[in-house]
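Explain my protein.
***
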Amino acid sequence: MSRFLPLSDEEREQMLKEIGREDLFSPIPKDLRLKEDLKIRSHSEKEVLYFFNNLASMNKNLTSFAGAGVYHHFIPSAVDYLSTREEFLTAYTPYQPEISQGTLQTIFEYQTMMCNILGMEVSNASMYDGATSLAESILMAKRIVKKKNTVAISKGVHPHYLKVVKTYLKNLGINIVEVGLKDYVTDIDQLKKRLSENSDIFAFAVGYPNFYGSVEDLKEIVPVVKEYDKKAIVITSTTEPLSFGIIAPPGDFGVEIACGEAQSFGNYPGFGGPLLGFLATTEKFVRQMPGRVAGQTVDLDGKTGYVLTLSAREQHIKRERATSNICSNQGWCMLRATIYLSLLGENGYKKLAKLNYSLSEYAKEKIGKTKHFKVVNTKPTFNEFTVQTDVDFLSFRAMCEENGVFPGVHLAKFGLDKDKFILTCTEVITPEDIDKLVNLMESAK
């Protein structure tokens, strides 16, 4: 017998009569209620499929150099196959460890891999996206440094992340001080000035790599913040954690909170979502960290088992005093990331990072020889960088699209410079694709 037992029309009418049909709609004024059936024509399955297939055929299949926070990487078929197995796809929050060992083990393995990647001691699993992970990281830092109410944020942080942070902090009495850029990385002199002028700063957040693609110098930034106040928290926000296959991770520099977006690990761009926020910290601050944490233990028979741990932080126990009020997370995206990273392995992860870097460097070299386009990053980059042009970008982009290429993300989209765009090279881009884009640049007027 099916476990789903639908109501009959008679049963439904009886239930509505018992509870009072009109009471269901009492909040809606009578003159606004629908007085007749909706005049919507029904469609057959065939007609619906035909309609959406026609819509899908209108999409252009372009070679895309887009990035700026969401990235297109090659995803092995095993990620799709394994992640869509019923036991994973329908898994619920693993509050009952007795029947959730598979989900809990996946969470534990994800946390372990993220700690290794970030050079941190503890990771959660997980956050909604990179923007909310940064906002939650700032709130976490505020809980650690209780008596101060100002956070300093580099303007190299992703603009969308900064907007979300401002929304989070607007009514919490936490002030924001922005630190400007010099040569597309944090202006160290301005950072020192902001810190010296304001004794109320409890944390500094910096993009690593930053929104413009530049790799910030944490070796210089962290000591500056710690010289100001040893208790001040340094937060890194990362949109492309694949970069840590080739550059030193945040933990190597004494960063206390590393957060960001892990969509590039086994998740498709998906027109901007769903995304996978990550957050990692030191063991010292684990009780202030939001989000889910799985731990490994042994049962009475000595067999390995997994459980949710540090539950006293959660909203169902501590309510408004909880450090974690996240009622859901990106568990399925986290699962895909775990499978993807497992398939890559440590060596594959590093090789993939080097491939992304080499393609980007090849593109930078080629673009540097064009007449109307210039790479503005003076500091090292990973797989994306910022390009300035003296031709109209929208006209150039239209020409590129006619030739099957999307050249990058216009900074005007973020309310920034109209003459600049971010160009990204991942492993799905070939040297021939880069040559084609450069040829289009050379023909631009």
Notes: The longest strand covers residues 201-207. Residues 63-74+346-443 form a domain with the Aspartate Aminotransferase, domain 1 fold (CATH 3.90.1150.10). The CA atoms of residues 246 and 354 lie 6 Å apart. The mean pLDDT is 93.
